[in-house]
Design brief:
single chain; about 675 residues; alpha+beta; Helix Hairpins; D-amino Acid Aminotransferase, Chain A, domain 1; 6 domains; five-stranded antiparallel β-sheet; about 35% helix; binds 2-(butylsulfanyl)adenosine
């Protein structure tokens, strides 16, 4: 090593140490001036010798990169979310569930704050931070490495030298930083962020990394699994700490559920004192080798749960009740409220669901009402307060006509909701297009509701097929206010790209009643072409899970409408793909697609690994063995599920046979 290189390494080491002490340990070793002057020295040397800049240099933390867009990245293992507990009883049930699965194993818990930020996955290759990816939909996230590299408490280099080391955690903004940013924004006359979480999300998704660098994002890490070397979550936390990651100091190992509840109370008491927002407490089984035993539902691990703090309830005046119409024509009633601070945001609108909801609770305009945030997101009116003025207020009357097109509203038999039956109702069309372009449907970026409204008002898009003609109006679109050349070009590109989607996205996007994402997937995997669904024998569907008469009736009705068939033909002529292309590659197998699987016992990889593969083939992975189960994939130490499968004559396969199943009989 040359003298200069050695000198640089020494400076870098010092700066790493100082910055760890400052940003992670909150115990500064030197004052800011000393840090800055050494950093300046490094910048100077690196500017003169750019060949000596390494990706782990502290100088790489300052932003400076502007991207066009974020690349998509497929997580190696999906980023799951957690099921919720709202009280002690839920926590005890969680414990009972685990106890049942445990047979003779001892288990314990780890309890830590649930940080109200955004989950992030950090990938280190040979000790160097190489990728940082958002959760996205859990399977595909966005590569936000350039922004994450600006986070001072995230090390660019760690001592773990594995070629693949993944650590997960939460990016957040402290309350102090949040206030600072909003103060600055109000001085600049810019719109304020609603809460620290939104501000952090807005920052992480900035294409210009200088913005992230200026905003002091922070991150707690809470997930690292390398079962070869680490046996428990507590140990993994100590390990992350030794790798110089920022670990939350309120995490605690608890030996039983009573201790868990006690520590949850303790964390709740600390909540208002903390300099970052938490929205609950996460409880995890501590022993990694029990994860598989406890298992997963289709969405969540069963070895962890998020205890959510009770929703805050406030009272405010109900100023008005007004109906709105959605894409299916369903009427939702909304409340205009006198602004009130609720769980970190100013609330001035809330949902009242349907007319029956309002009538049952006797909610009246002018009344003082209780409001809360349902699931901490959408505010909801709970009930009115019956004060001395209440009787003077007029009782609520349900709407009789569509607020948008004035058609007389209808009700379906046995349904509480009212519907606008007008096929040409402008709001229904706009909402239908919004659904059509949404992420799980055609995934056309750049068509926000505002843009759709604008295109609709200017007669560019009056129905779905018009989206694919937009390319003929490029110049006119650029002229539309605020659209601009760049965004129009991006939009047209996104539209062209969407034509190549596998057909389940289009089928879901059509917005047929009762056809959700999963149903669309199952049907298209089986029938391969949307147009083929037109004349199939629905009795066949008995074989497909979860598809009952309500769904088939709705689909049959949709296809019996000639204009819908015409639309599909037009889309096909426009180059939109109507066929199944497979989710990842083309995966179909007679023995797997549409079959029911149960997974049990210890396998060479987490259960989710197998589940993901099976689902790629359109199989369904369920929790318990029944007569309907087609296969039990059993690892070693399989317990009661294996016994039950034997009793019911379910085909039992081991990992080797599973591999043959996917390798050997993959027909495409
Ligand atoms: S563990 C499979 N621990 O909460 C387990 N999550 O609904 C993965 N979160 O998406 C999550 N603090 O973004 C875990 N200490 C913590 C957390 C935490 C916040 C977030 C995370 C996750 C969501 C779960």
């Amino acid at each position: 090593m040359t003298e200069l290189k050695k000198h640089i390494e020494e400076i870098k080491e010092k700066l790493h140490q100082w910055s760890h002490a400052y940003y992670v340990l909150d115990k500064p070793m030197v004052d800011d001036l000393e840090y800055d002057s050494l950093l300046k020295e490094l910048i100077k040397i690196e500017t003169q010798n750019p060949q000596l800049i390494t990706s782990d240099s502290p100088t790489q933390k300052v932003g400076g990169i502007v991207l066009d867009k974020f690349e998509k990245y497929q997580h190696k293992t999906p980023m799951l979310s957690l099921s919720n507990a709202f009280n002690d009883e839920d926590l005890k049930n969680f414990n009972d569930q685990i106890y049942k699965e445990m047979e003779n194993n001892n288990y314990s818990f780890f309890v830590e704050p649930k940080i109200d930020g955004l989950s992030i996955s950090l990938i280190y290759s040979n000790g160097i931070l190489s990728k940082a990816v958002t959760r996205g939909d859990g399977v595909f996230g966005e590569d936000v490495t350039v922004n994450v590299k600006t986070i001072k408490s995230i090390p660019l280099k760690i001592a773990n030298q594995l070629d693949y080391c993944e650590v997960r955690g939460e990016v957040f903004l402290s309350k102090k930083e949040f206030d600072k940013i909003n103060h600055q924004r109000s001085l600049n006359g810019e719109e304020l962020f609603a809460n620290p979480r939104n501000a952090a999300a807005g920052t992480l998704r900035q294409l210009d990394s200088n913005i992230a660098a200026s905003r002091n994002l922070d991150a707690f890490l809470y997930y690292y699994m390398d079962r070869e070397t680490i046996a428990t979550h507590s140990e993994s936390m100590r390990y992350l700490d030794s790798m110089k990651f920022k670990i939350n100091s309120l995490g605690k190992h608890c030996t039983n559920i009573e201790e868990v509840i006690e520590h949850i109370h303790y964390i709740s008491e600390q909540r208002s004192e903390l300099d970052y927002e938490i929205d609950g407490v996460v409880v995890k089984v501590d022993e990694f080798d029990l994860y598989e035993k406890v298992g997963y539902t289709s969405k969540f691990p069963k070895w962890a749960i998020a205890y959510k703090f009770p929703a805050e309830i406030k009272t405010t005046k109900l100023l008005n009740i007004f109906p709105t119409v959605g894409r299916t024509g369903r009427i939702t009633y909304n409340a205009a409220l006198e602004p009130v601070q609720l769980a970190g945001t100013t609330v001035q609108a809330a949902t009242l669901h349907n007319a029956d909801f309002i009538i049952d609770r006797d909610i009246r305009v002018g009344a003082v009402v209780k409001v809360k945030k349902a699931g901490d997101i959408i505010p909801e009116v709970i009930e009115p307060i019956i004060d001395k003025d209440f009787d003077t207020l007029e009782k609520f009357q349900e709407a009789t006509h569509c607020p948008e097109c004035n058609f007389i509203l209808e009700r379906f038999e046995d349904e509480v909701d009212q519907y606008c039956p007008n096929k040409e109702c402008p709001r229904k069309i706009i909402r239908a297009i919004e659904h059509f372009v949404s992420r799980d449907a055609m995934n056309i970026e750049g068509l926000s509701i505002k843009i759709i409204e604008k295109l609709f008002a200017n007669n560019f898009v009056k129905e779905i097929k018009d989206i694919f003609n937009l390319k003929n109006f490029k110049e006119q679109l650029i002229q539309l206010d605020k659209m601009g050349e760049k965004s129009v070009t991006n939009l047209l590109e996104a539209i062209e790209k969407s034509k190549l989607n596998s057909a389940e996205k289009l089928f879901f996007g059509l917005g047929i009643r009762h056809v959700g994402k999963k149903t669309a997937q199952l049907l298209i995997t089986k029938y391969k072409n949307i147009l083929d669904l037109k004349d199939i024998d629905w009795n066949d569907l008995e074989e497909i899970h979860d598809i009952g008469p309500t769904v088939t009736k709705s689909i049959t009705k949709w296809f019996s409408d000639k204009t819908n068939i015409e639309m599909l033909h037009t889309l096909e002529e426009q180059g939109v793909n109507l066929k199944y292309l497979g989710q990842i590659g083309t995966k179909f197998s007679d023995s797997i697609t549409n079959k029911n699987f149960v997974i049990t016992g210890t396998l060479s990889k987490p259960r989710n690994h197998f589940k993901t593969i099976l689902e790629e083939y359109g199989a369904k992975v369920i929790d318990s063995v029944s007569k309907k189960t087609d296969y039990l994939l059993a690892g070693s130490e399989a317990g009661s599920k294996l016994e039950k499968a034997q009793k019911l004559n379910v085909t039992i396969i081991d990992e080797q046979e599973f591999n043959n199943l996917i390798g050997g009989k993959n027909e495409n």
